[in-house]
């Protein structure tokens, strides 16, 4: 019954990166193509290295069928060891999770990946010895706990030490200068200062070497409790209000200690809160947002909807798609996080109130909210280099524990929480609601989410700057050429060639017009977002209302009467939130000003490109955003070539990068899975099996029964 493709005659060897070692391999492995439930597939070799698991067939040897969007590090049939989520073995048609030592070896190996790919390898025709070696090798190297120094990151850095430093205009925030420049950019240097107190990590190993605090905070205060209870600056609004974060004191303290802590905090708060001129709102995120455990549980349920083995599974879940989606609670968590960010934006923008985000370590939900607020309020964070600098500032240098939260070392599942993915999901909502406001595309966000699992970049593989610094310069780790030099993920040329890089940039980005020199002087003291587009000048009244007489009484009213109510954070925000939200949405959008996401009901959507890209059944043939992008890129190429002709006629020697745009002439043939998967075959929806109809008839809940009439294309939204 199996459609057998002749085994490959020629020897295919894996392409190894510097420092990559082949650990085990098996020949005559049959990889199923998950299509229509049939057992079609291809023979090849399955290998495991200290970097990845790879399947090599005769196509691997030829470059004829190269995808247009090829990753130079991780191929189509490659799975990095950090990207492996779970491994199942099939024994007599029963699936069993594989961990640790195996007594019996399976007939089929199913690998579920963190980027939601699913691989099925049939081992029935492979030699027994090779099966034992490859299965135990894959399980051991991808599932068992390991030491940090055993990560491929270090092997790669020592074997390829002379890599280019790809800063690419991204501010790394690892020097005092970077922080001072950011203070100056946001005009925060009047009230805040960059400090060197933590040089040599003498305050705390969790804090970065350099950070920014209110000017009145003394060095003694910072040293007193290892940085706890100190407001750390994130960003300043154009009106002077600042966003701050703080690592809280432990809650289970005896009375005298908690009194001492309270007195310390009161003193610190007085440096920021000076009514009526300077107001402060504190927000304890651990009580006002879902717990980390809730976030992890919701995402685990959510991703199961997309880890689909075969076509039958897809259509079975499609019937109850909406009820299944709602039961995961993932979209509701995204909605709550966006809502919280809008609340913070309202305080900063309309009430001119400083906001202090509080969390136990200030490195989890604080990172999500502070980043999201900056993306919404600062148009610089919506450019590619600005967004990358923001991730560096709030997450990488800010001390988010990527190593633990992504469970890269497989040490503890309890620590694993997809907080960075949560941020990317929230940013995606904004990108798809306001495409012209962003210099990058959803493809950029998808690729960034994939890069979490590529251990040749140091960006997402340390818990703190201290951990990276000690690993980089540790005596035992010095290579012959000196300390390690790790790559940063922001050097996208390491993963993609220029043709593919074009997909990361938004061709419809509404660039900010540059003011002429005469205007620049008057606008200098204001935040850069003040220079709004002429078409949307009406929008500016809410943002600069405090300069205008007609809204002056409103501001006084808010500052006077309502601020008392708003200081105590509650689950249901006061009416001022709704008023602010509705008022903003009733006006034209200024793509360089404040952006508020729409968060009501169906406005929160599934990030289709990331979650449905490997499922042929969910594709739109010749449709989706990629088809539109393809047409725009075609048009851009045509305009650029005309420009070149005009320049030649005028004898101007201007070099225009025509070839930086990919040629996508046949965009009608593309599907919405592009550029991650090539054009897939048509998938025909099967007649529903009797059992499914019977299940539906038995259900009393009318809401669930309605789902059966949903068209499969409903998945895409």
From TrEMBL:
Residues 173-611 form the Myotubularin phosphatase domain. SUPFAM superfamilies: (Phosphotyrosine protein) phosphatases II, PH domain-like. CDD domains: PTP-MTMR12 (cd14594). GO terms for biological process: phosphatidylinositol dephosphorylation. It comes from the Eukaryota. It is found in: Cytoplasm, Myofibril, Sarcomere; Sarcoplasmic reticulum. Its main location: cytoplasm. It holds the Pfam family 3-PAP. GO terms for cellular component: membrane; sarcomere; sarcoplasmic reticulum. Keywords: Cytoplasm, Sarcoplasmic reticulum. Belongs to the protein-tyrosine phosphatase family. Non-receptor class myotubularin subfamily. This is Myotubularin-related protein 12. It comes from Columbina picui (Picui ground-dove). The gene is Mtmr12.
